[in-house]
Amino acid sequence: MKVLVTGGSGFIGSHVVDQLVDAGHKPVIYDRRPSPYRDDIQTELGELSDLTMLELAMSGCDAVLHLAAAADVNEVAKMPVESEAANARGTLNVLEAARGAGVKRVVYASTIWVYTGESGERVDEESNLGMPNHLYTASKLAGEMYCRSYNELYELEYTVLRFGIPYGPRARPAAVVPAFVGKAMAGEALTVAGAGDQSRRFVYVEDLASGCVKALDPVAANRTYNLVSDSSVTILEIAELVQDLVAPTGIEYTEQRTADYVGVEVSGVRAEEELGWTAVTPFAEGVSRYVEWRREDEAAAPVPMQPTAKAATQGFTAALTRVRKSVAMPFAYAIGSLMMLAAYVVAVDSLGLPDAQVGTLAVTMIAALAVFLLIELMWRNPKTRAISAVSSALITAIFVFAVMTPWGHHLFHLATPGRSLFILTITGVALVIALASAGIALARRRG
Ligand SMILES: NC(=O)c1ccc[n+]([C@@H]2O[C@H](COP(=O)([O-])OP(=O)(O)OC[C@H]3O[C@@H](n4cnc5c(N)ncnc54)[C@H](O)[C@@H]3O)[C@@H](O)[C@H]2O)c1
User: Fold this and answer.
1) What is the pLDDT of residues 308-350, one digit of tens each?
2) Contact at 8 Å (CB) between 181 and 291?
3) CA-CA distances (angstroms) from residue 272 to 67, 162, 225, 268?
4) What distance in Å separates the CA atoms of residue 53 and residue 50, rounded to the nearest whole number?
5) Which atom of ligand 1 is nearest to the CA of 82?
6) 211 Cβ closer than 6 Å to some ligand 1 atom
7) Quick check: CB of 89 below 6 Å from ligand 1?
8) How far is the CA of 107 from the centre of ligand 1 (A)?
9) How far is the CA of 156 from the centre of ligand 1 (A)?
10) Is the pLDDT of residue 423 over 60?
């Protein structure tokens, strides 16, 4: 299966890419930065805001694993507008691009933070969700809702995965386990918010990545799953474990964070029953693997990745994208095509062609334009593909009848296309198609 992984250069996404390769799939990374871990995987550098780039990157893909997001709650609080654009609108763009590219399924990385408003003892995927109190949760929930809407409206399959709190190799340094390990390694005391009794459903990142791969299974179509481990760990327990594994540097207590995840118990039963997925790595084992990775990572000299041919291609692709994204481009293209079309009409007029030849020219250009517009405007939507195909075939048949058969000539008073009329026709068709595609590009950019 060819799978586009948005956010494939990030913490969780990079493990997902590894496991897709191990499972025999063909991943393609879509991210705003190159992967620091793999230079052997096709990478499309782009923003979630770039619908055209997303759709291009998805071409030929069977599924999308959508992980790119503003994933750090503190960053979200610092940059609310940019974060909302990435998490909510970015997800909408991924869905729209998937619809356009004819991708079958979008697997969406959500979070168990969506249960923050819940007061019950234990929640599962059927629990009613309360109003979110953090913008991160609100924007991730918006993404879940868009997935459902796209399924209702356009029958695009989705799978929502609500991740527990991930940890493990490649984790962002600001997350709790890396922060504690980093402090302990530096000989500093660990800081715990409140009494440290906030519990978390931590899940080892490689377990999480295997859940993402399993979510490509047909059984997961239009389903939501919690990917959590079956045991909760409190922040204080983590601090104590890190003290044991790294160094006994002491624990300091600070104020509780605003809108902190309070840790209601989240059930992972559905993922186990339907996907056969459970988090298999015990927490202490996972933290110990993280500490080992961190030591190796810090011991390794920071060798910058050599610029390879691939990186050069990425640079070229990025430059092309920038040119394509420039607002001036479609305008220049439209004005250029319009001027050439006007010059063409004046030239044809000055030739003083007989009416029958002008008629043949006009019929051919109108027929070509109609077929082009049908394909361009209707082909994107799977439901209208059949109508588009049948109508294009019909127009072509009428055209062939009118221009190529003796009966058509008599009926419509047309001329037989000779060599010069043929060249004139090809030029005219190319010009109307260029103008129409410029118009469509402009309309899409404005939309
Ligand atoms: N890390 C967590 O604690 C956690 C918990 C639950 C759910 N999640 C979800 O899992 C997913 C992956 O999280 P992660 O921890 O690997 O995050 P990460 O920050 O390590 O990776 C995100 C990747 O997305 C890319 N990205 C971000 N915004 C982009 C944009 N606008 N255009 C293109 N690329 C963009 C980044 O460059 C990065 O490589 C996210 O959707 C997140 O909401 C994360």
Assistant:
1) 444 444 556 656 655 655 556 778 888 888 999 999 999 988 9
2) yes
3) 22, 14, 9, 7
4) 5
5) 31
6) no
7) no
8) 14
9) 23
10) yes
Query: How many CA atoms are closer than 13 Å to the CA of 290, on its beta-carbon side?
Result: 34
Q: Cα of 420 to ligand 1 centre, how many Å?
A: 59
Query: Domain 2-166+205-226+266-279+295-320 maps to which CATH number in 3.30.930.10, 3.40.50.720, 3.30.1330.30, 3.30.310.50?
Result: 3.40.50.720
pLDDT 10s digits, 373-382:
888 776 655 5
From its phi and psi, is residue 186 left (phi > 0), alpha (psi between -120 and 50) or beta?
Answer: alpha
Q: Left if phi > 0, otherwise alpha if psi is -120 to 50, otherwise beta: which for 254? A: beta
* Domains of the chain, residue spans: 2-166+205-226+266-279+295-320, 328-446
Check pocket membership of 47 for ligand 1, CB cut-off 6 A. yes
Residue 277's φ and ψ, nearest 5 degrees, are -110, 130
Pocket test for ligand 1, best of 4, 5, 11, 141 (most atoms within 8 A of CB): 11
Contacts with 357 (C-beta within 8 Å, 6 or more apart), sequence order: 415, 421
Cβ(122) to ligand 1 under 6 A? no
Cα separation values, 199 from 94, 185, 230, 283, Å? 33, 24, 12, 13
Strand partners, 66: 6, 108
Task: Give the chain's radius of gyration (CA, Å).
Answer: 28
Instruction: For residue 228, give the amino acid letter.
Output: V
What integer pLDDT is reported at residue 305 of this predicted model?
46
Q: Calculate how far, in angstroms, residue 113's C-alpha sits from the geometric centre of ligand 1.
A: 15
Determine whether the shortest distance from the Cβ of 115 to ligand 1 is under 6 A: no
**Cα 258 from Cα 370, distance rounded (Å):** 58
Name residues whose C-beta falls within 8 Å of residue 301's C-beta, 6 or more positions apart in sequence.
none
Confidence of residue 445 (pLDDT cuts 50, 70, 90): low
Query: Is residue 67 classed as helix, strand or coil in its secondary structure?
Result: coil
Token look-up 């999308």 returns 64
Contact 101, 61 (CB under 8 A): yes
